[in-house]
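Renewal narrative, Specific Aim 1. Our central claim is that a sequence can be written position by position from structural information alone. The example that follows is taken directly from our test logs and has not been curated for this report. It begins with the structure tokens describing the chain, in the order in which they were read.
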């Protein structure tokens, strides 16, 4: 099923997982998926080679299992920067053979260890190529606070509009910790006639190293109350984790009350945290959007 069709019916609630590191057994992800399945997400997306480690077949295998073993709609992430057109055609063929209908088309993180190729310099070029060469629902990434490389948010939105015009059917946002950035971004996107569904990306932060990494990788702002929370609990791991979960729930309650299209939870493959959040918001998500 193409996941963009879900947004007509409800507030979409979806998860992201990543393939286990090469040093961990692949089976660990299957027990995580089994546990995540209890919360009945609308779909699960599977990352692809983040940081340049090219584990594409693993992504396809996991996305296949999400759909066919666990009965949940799946999305395969697909970064274009390290592939040429012939390689991309083969990947699209493999995705179709695996029964995957949904692709998150990305430029991809540029790794110092892998020389980028020229065919897909921007995600919009990959979106055009996928639409010309297959029957996929194509999802794109968006950045409420602007992409790190963009000179201004306005410039980033102009490129986002190009990506949508190329055929992107749905968007998923970068994580953020201040909902006001997301609402301001939605207003600007709508002013530019970007009218595809936009899911809010929420990452529960459960340890200090994780947040430092995220801020340097994504350049997101940390609100004062978030920083105070981190300082108070940084030497108390259980309290830090619980505060991070509560913060994410608080963000979601506000977003769902404001009738956003959907919530995409970056689970970090942690089913315990996904469970706590899913249980806390499940009744909210069941209320029709227009109510
Ligand atoms: P683009 O949309 O191409 O944008 C990249 C930059 O180029 C932006 O600054 C944009 O403004 C600019 N730009 C776009 N078009 C033009 C143009 N025509 N001329 C000049 N500038 C332009 N990475 C992975 O490697 N694997 C993953 O699985 C993965 N999953 C992700 C999931 C989500 C929800 C998100 C938000 C990000 C994910 N990423 C992943 C990270 C992503 O690959 C990086 O953020 C990457 O730097 C940008 O990818 P993009 O698809 O947004 O690029």
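The sequence written for that structure reads:
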């Amino acid at each position: 099923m193409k996941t963009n069709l879900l947004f007509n019916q409800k507030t979409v609630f979806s998860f992201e997982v990543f393939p286990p590191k090469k040093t961990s057994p692949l089976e660990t992800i299957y027990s995580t998926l089994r546990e995540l399945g209890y919360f009945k997400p609308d779909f699960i997306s599977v990352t692809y080679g983040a940081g340049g480690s090219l584990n594409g077949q693993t992504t396809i295998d996991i996305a296949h299992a999400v759909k066919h073993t666990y009965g949940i709609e799946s999305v395969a992430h697909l970064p274009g920067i390290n592939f040429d057109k012939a390689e991309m055609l083969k990947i699209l063929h493999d995705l179709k053979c695996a029964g995957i209908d949904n692709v998150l088309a990305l430029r991809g993180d540029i790794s110092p260890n892998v020389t980028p190729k020229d065919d897909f310099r921007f995600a919009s070029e990959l979106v055009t190529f996928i639409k010309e060469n297959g029957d996929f629902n194509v999802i794109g990434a968006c950045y409420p606070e602007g992409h790190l490389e963009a000179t201004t948010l306005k410039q980033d939105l102009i490129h986002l509009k190009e990506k949508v015009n190329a055929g992107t059917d749905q968007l998923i946002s970068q994580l953020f910790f201040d909902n006001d950035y997301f609402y301001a971004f939605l207003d600007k996107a709508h002013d530019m006639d970007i009218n595809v569904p936009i899911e809010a990306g929420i990452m529960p932060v459960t340890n200090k190293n994780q947040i430092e990494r995220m801020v340097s990788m994504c350049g997101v702002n940390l609100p004062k109350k978030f920083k105070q929370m981190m300082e108070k609990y940084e030497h108390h791991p259980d309290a830090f984790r619980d505060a991070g979960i509560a913060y994410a729930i608080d963000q979601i309650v506000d977003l769902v009350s404001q009738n956003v299209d959907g919530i995409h939870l970056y689970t970090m493959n942690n089913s315990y945290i996904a469970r706590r959040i899913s249980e806390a918001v499940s009744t909210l998500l069941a209320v029709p959007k227009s109510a």
